[in-house]
Amino acid sequence: MKTMTLSFSIALLATQLPAAQTLWIDGTVCRMNRAIDRLIIRSDYGNRVRIALGRSVPIQYRLQTYDRADLRPGDRVHITVQRGALGLLARQLDVTMRVEEALIDSIFRSHRTVTGRFGAREPKTELFTLRLPGPRDVRIDAKGASGPSGRVWVGRLRPGDLLEIRGAWKSKDFLQANSINVLTDHEPSYCTSAARRDEIPAETHSRETSEQRFLDKSSEDSR
Asked: Could you tell me the domains of the chain?
């Protein structure tokens, strides 16, 4: 199988690359869906690339298996892709730098701030489990927690939502939340500004709507 390097426009390759050939992409994760099987990458060549990440695709970090639930917007990645009927399909993904290490986009962590994925709500309560890297599950008490738009109700959160939570630890695995910021659709500001550069508002709206449709497609479509 012939291997190609990224020496010209990825957008052109996405439409012309034969299925029998392989492409390597280095870039930054700008967006992903809750199932973490569709990514939008800003390549080092400036293109925004849509990539389907099937559930069986191996993910590694420092030569170790990496849980896709731990992927974050801002992570640096090296992806091996092939062109398929539905577009670019990942064959392997290597995380080369995690957002926590790079302190990207001024999202600073502290012992009172945790970032993870919504697990499950405890019935008829404002308590839920949060999946942290490791993996490690902690219980969150969200009673009275607020967000950028006001009170956050656990019943409105969805499995796989990426959450940034600030609060006070009541025990090793139990956090009383003061604020909850839903980062599911968060995109690092430099990704957004780079994408909108030289676009007129109508172009931005069209692109962002199309990207959202791509992210919203079911995981079955990306296999």
From this structure: 3-103+194-222 (2.40.50.320), 109-182 (2.40.50.140)
